[in-house]
Amino acid sequence: MADEIPTKSPPETPTNRPEKPQIPAAEPISVTEKETPLDPSPTTEEQAQKEPIQQENPSPEAEKPQKVPESQGSFKEESNKVTDLSDLEKKSLDELKTHVQELGEIQIYGVPLLVDERSDVILLKFLRARDFKVKEAFLMLKNTLKWREEFGIESLIEENLGDDLDKVVFSDGFDKDGHPVCYNVYGEFQNKELYKKTFGDQEKRNKFLKWRIQFLEKSIRKLDFSPGGINTIFQISDLKNSPGPGKTEHRIATKQALQLLQDNYPEFVAKQVFINVPWWYLAFYTMISPFMTQRTKSKFVFASPARTAETLFKYIAPEQVPLQYGGLSVDSCDCNPAFTNNDPASEITIKPATKQTVEILVNEKCNIIWELRVVGWDVSHSAEYVPRAEGSYTAIVYKAKKMSPTDEPVISMGYKITELGKLLLTVDNSTSKKKKLLYRFKVEPLCD
């Protein structure tokens, strides 16, 4: 369901995640990536480094230069282990615990307070939200507990609010540090019927608010509140075709939701990435920026439509990024059954006017299957198999074909190998734009 974080395992951390598709040691497969210049490029290498990765189906907004707010994404999560806290932070935590004891037996976000070390993690969230000012943190906690009771959070968890908004807000995959990723796709409200059904009057807006809180609460209860656990969420807000400032109903509902989240769910965002940022958002951000703390702004990352995919790939492995944002992750009902979000993909940046060849050396008879994607396409690609034995003929798996941004984003192929040799996957980028090549493959034994 859209309101639940998928049960897929988090990806491996950057320290142990393989750079190439993982192949069991027993399978004698090796991979070589070769870059070959084509005709002299009209763009210098220095310019190529500055060019954004070309996207599929660029919108009019992507075609003209636009200045988005400068990314502040320098935030790094602090440790929640008591041994890593400063003396002042430890003192503040102990003082807050003393105040919490006065409240008796209570629980929040599904965790009973003062029962085990998970309580420390939650109390540290309130302390950090108030710069370790104990009285202010305690007041915030009391107000949150009061609001949760009035809002009926515990009964709301079990309430059936429908699935009309499952494409507006959904969880999909994990970032490179293991945080669950939540997508907010405001462009879905271009559907006038959905917009009216969601924001048409105050009663509908209240239901939207309940749905949004329910989604967040369910997501939070899947987090690990142990001191070394993942207890924050990676948020992505897709602003493509989102309702602008002129949509009063949407603005009111969004403001209400943001205020409730800010007041009652402190320090649950690991990073907030805004993608497909339109021109009007600059004015909006400039207006609200002075009211944000530097800590909040340090979690923000902004990406124009032209830089959406490459920005996401900095934080999320491509196999964990949904198809519509340049990655390889698709719904389980649509995906190639040979691959899942846990099968790592390799990334290559193809410079302008170059040919990139992935050479997969195969030393046993087998079936090999692969997926290949070039973000933005507008390039030619081909595949051939070159047997090792002298006198053998090169087999054309498929001839060079020019792919446009409107073609299917992912190429899925397979080949039966009966002679040892090498598979060559080639992409010709004759454009003046750099491209991002994604690929992964698997080897299966031949059936008798």
Structural class: alpha+beta
Compute the number of strand runs: 16
Fraction of residues in H or I helices: 25-40%
Number of helices: 12
Question: How would you describe the overall organization of this protein?
Answer:
- This protein is an alpha+beta fold.
- It is 28% helix and 25% strand.
- It has 12 helices and 16 strands.
- A 5-stranded antiparallel beta sheet has the order 1-10-15-12-13, with no helix packed on it.
- A hairpin with a 2-residue loop joins strand 2 and strand 3.
- Helix 3 crosses helix 5 and helix 4 packs across helix 5.
- It is elongated.
- The N terminus is likely disordered.
Provide key terms for this protein.
448 residues, 12 helices, elongated, disordered N terminus, 5-stranded antiparallel β-sheet, 5-stranded mixed β-sheet
